[in-house]
Design a protein that fits this description.
This protein folds into 3 domains: 5-109, Methane Monooxygenase Hydroxylase, Chain G, domain 1 (Up-down Bundle), CATH 1.20.58; 121-219 and 312-365, Alpha-Beta Plaits (2-Layer Sandwich); 223-298, Double Stranded RNA Binding Domain. It is 49% helix and 20% strand. It has helices at 5-31, 33-36, 39-78, 82-109, 132-151, 181-185, 244-248, 272-298, 338-342, 347-365; strands at residues 121-127, 155-163, 169-177, 190-196, 207-217, 231-236, 252-257, 262-266, 315-320, 325-328, 333-335. Helix 1 crosses helix 3 and helix 3 runs antiparallel to helix 4. It is flat. Mean pLDDT is 84; it is low at 240-247 and 300-312.
């Protein structure tokens, strides 16, 4: 027999009370001198503490509202003055409405959350089918993400880039730093298909090309156990501009993680050390992503955290230039503002994907 709404609501606030207890435990442990001497543990606790703060604020607001409602009901029952009764009745009505909204907010707050949502991201864009045109499309996508980041005052840094003959990218890796970057950009992972007439197409025929986007949460040193003996470091002369520096100094860095076979190359900086630091950042992110995906596959209720399967082989969107149309295949959304999207106005697409994911989680929780 299904639980009544009252029982369900009581259980929900009971779960938030448990969150409150956990919040107090974290604060006590963070205040312990033994913890301050363990940077890794302190960092883990600080991240969990920050993730719970919104839930605690919601719980405190609910407690205050229920106390006020109880007081207003007492006034309503005991007041002899009609004006006072009307005032109390209005307050009871407002507080009940507020508590209903808090209950709705609490259901959302208790939905499963991605612990990586607040992290910076590593975005990898690779040209797919379509030859040089696919490389140009990869460059367009990078520009859209950079402009989106700029609009949110996030910092961007191209870590590695392999250009094609037309000025596009075979592959480009970009770091985006900003609060909540992964929570927004994770919905971009997948295959992006474009339909347009290439500049070199004399007959005006529409060509179809693809680019694959991978969005990974940036990993910190404490997240990934990297043994230096597992990493092979190769140095080489960077190609391209640079004059005598290129000819005399080996600034290019290639890291090979022997156990996983992951290879990361970085040549963008004129400093070997800077290239190595950037390459290590990408390597940690790729290894962390492997661990993250492996953990998700082991869950009994396995499902990617992104809308759709989240598989990077999945076509998530089609961009049709002749019709100025963008279609998100995961949620059946079509918008006719492709120009705006390429100029960094991604929020309508991202918001729709996030809303669809929230609706799915709410349906599963009910």
């Amino acid at each position: 027999m299904p639980a009544s709404p009252a029982t369900d609501t009581s259980a929900m606030w009971s779960r938030l009370e448990d969150v409150g207890k956990r919040f107090e435990e974290i604060e006590n442990e963070m205040a312990d001198p033994a913890t301050s001497g363990n940077p890794s543990r302190l960092q883990t606790l600080a991240r969990e503490h920050a993730s719970l703060q919104a839930k605690i604020a919601l719980l405190n607001e609910y407690r205050a509202a229920t106390d006020e409602l109880e007081q207003a009901q007492e006034v309503l029952e005991e007041a002899d003055d009609e004006e006072m009764r009307e005032f109390a009745q209005a307050e009871v009505t407002d507080l009940r409405t507020r508590i209903e909204q808090l209950e709705s907010d609490a259901r959302r707050a208790l939905l499963p959350t991605d612990p990586n949502d607040e992290r910076n991201v590593i975005v990898e864009i690779r040209a797919g089918a379509g030859g040089d045109e696919a490389g140009l499309w990869a460059a367009d996508l990078l520009r859209a993400y950079v402009r989106y980041a700029e609009g949110r005052r996030w910092q961007t840094d191209v870590l590695s880039a392999s250009e094609n003959a037309m000025g596009g990218f075979k592959e480009v890796i970009c770091q985006i730093e900003g609060s909540g970057a992964f929570s927004r950009l994770k919905y971009e992972s997948g295959v992006h298909r474009v339909q347009r007439v290439p500049e070199t197409e004399a007959q005006g025929r529409i060509h179809t090309s693809t680019a694959t986007v991978a969005v990974m949460p940036e990993a910190e040193e404490v997240d990934v156990d990297l043994d230096d003996s597992d990493i092979r470091l190769d140095l080489f002369h960077s190609g391209g501009a640079g004059g005598q520096n290129v000819n005399k100094v080996q600034t290019g860095v290639r890291l090979t993680h022997e156990p996983s076979g992951i290879v990361v190359t970085c040549t963008d900086e004129r400093s070997q050390l800077k290239n190595k630091i950037k390459a290590m950042s990408v390597l940690r992110a790729r290894l962390y992503e492997q661990q993250r995906m492996a953990a998700e596959r082991e869950r009994a209720d396995f499902r990617r955290s992104q809308v759709g399967s989240g598989d990077r082989s999945e076509k998530i969107r089609t961009y049709n230039f002749p019709e100025n149309r963008v279609t998100d295949h995961r949620i059946g959304l079509t918008r006719h503002d492709l120009d705006g999207m390429l100029d960094g106005h991604l929020d309508p697409l991202i918001d729709a994907a996030a809303t669809a994911e929230e609706a799915r989680l709410l349906a599963e929780a009910s």
